[in-house]
Structures are given as C-alpha cells and as structure tokens.
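Fold this sequence, please.
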Amino acid sequence: MIVCKGLTKQYKDLVALRDLTMTISQGDIFGYIGPNGAGKTTTIKILATLIKPTSGYAEICNCNVLTQPDDVKRVIGYMPDFFGVYDDMKVWEYLDFFGAAYKIDRAKRRKIIDDVLEITDLTGKKNDFVEALSRGMKQRLCLAKTLVHDPQVLLLDEPASGLDPRARIEMRELLKELRRLGKTILISSHILTELADFCNTIGILERGELLAAGEVSAIMGQMEGARKVEITIRDAARASEAHDLLTAHGGVRSVQIDGNEIVVDVDVTVDDVSFINELLLANGIKITAFRESEVDLEDIFMKITKGAVQ
C-alpha cells in the first residue's frame, strides 16, 4: 500500500529525512515512532503530497506521490498534527464542506456525513457549533473529516496529541475499528504507550534515519537480552547465592538484585525460562513470585535509539 525508496528531504544543511526505505502492507497499523524532530511529520507531508522530497521515490496504492498527486489524494486521508476549525459552522456543515471539496454529490453527502459521525461517535454533536467542541471532540471531528471520501490509507500525525487519558483510550479504540473496516493506517507519535496496544508493525526513526522497521515481535527478537524474568525469593539473605547460581548459567546474560527481588536478563535464544525456577529450587532457594515481563515499545525504543536529536 505504501512504498518508500531512498526518500530524502534536505533543507540547506539540515537533512530532515535520509534515505528512507520502507513498505507498509494493506491492513497494517504502522506506528511511526521517534522523538520530536526525528522526521516523522516530514515523511507524512511527503506522502500527503504537501512537500516534495529532495530525492527518492514514494507511492501509495500504486500511485506515484510525485507524478500522480491528484490520484494519491483520492486514496489517502491526512490528519495533521495541528489543524484549524471554522468558526460559526456546525459539525455537519464542516463535514459537508469537505464532502463538497472532494466533489461528492450533494445527495450522497448526507448519508456519508451520518456514517462518519456514527463511526467517530459524534452523532449527538451533529448540530453543535464546531468551536464549542472539546479538544477531544475536535480531534474526532478532524478524523471524521479525513474519512469523508472513504480513503484506503490514513496518514495520522500525532492524532492523540493534547488529549486527556479517556480521550486517548477512545481514539485508540476508534483506530482499531478503522483497521477492522479495512483501512491501512500510518500513525506517528513520540508517546509510545499510545501505540503499543494496537500497532502490528512499527518503524523507529531518529535524526531522519530509519533504524528499524517491521513486525513488533520480529524487532523484539532481534534485540539482545530482550527477555526478562522477575522473581521474588523468600529469604533475602540468599540473594547473593541466587545471583551466583544464575550468573553461571549459560542462558543468563545478567542478574540484578534488590533485596529479595531479582531480575534475570535471559538470552533471547532460550525458549523455556523454567530453568530459573528449577535451578533455585534444586539449591534450596524458595521462590514466592515468578513472572516473565513483556518487552514493550519503550524497551525497544531505548534499546535501538541513541537519544540523539537534530
């Protein structure tokens, strides 16, 4: 659905995007991760045909972003990180305006507006004035506007920016529903907890360079020491002994102790971590808690990036 090859954008001495090559497949929710200034918005604006790359190639739904911008605009829905709303317009009028801009027949627009209001849970706000909406409702309205022409691909730049916790959760559930409806979604964010629950693929960007991209599980598998086991032993006095036993095992990369709490960093090649329990029990060290902690996007991000900024 989305293909980028060698995409580069340079502003005088600043390289905002460097040789970006990636593919996003149909039905993916692709989390585009990176700190502020990493090049996420630059990428999305290029894909949305708003700015031209210095070099490279990009296509969406087999339409060339550079040579077929009108065709690209028909298949994408673009939601910017900052957007304006029009005063003295009601919600349905706002959507009707954009429906007309997409040359949707007037007779069809009424049903389309009702449909996108229902999807975004804004039906009850249909006759409210736009400026009276809360921040979260305005975000939903912007997304509803993005859906008016039924695009195949959604380009969402920080869609949950500035929302309160409830609104963030509601936005996340809405994006899941859009995926179930068959949409392909590229969503950028620097707030990793926003993306962890619903993105099936990710790309990690830093200083304009794509450091890793693909399925979350595959990227986790490439990380050394990605599996961690947290255990609690009954007798804190034996923590040092447990440390030595575990450190000597070939499947253990490192061991950290805090009182009777022990965190074991296990080699990713080890399929079964039950050896930890067996080893300690065989040596008379009793365990009161045993849990393998899941690696999340924050772990992946911190492992791969270097904390550099433009």
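The chain has eleven helices and 14 strands. The chain has a mean pLDDT of 88.
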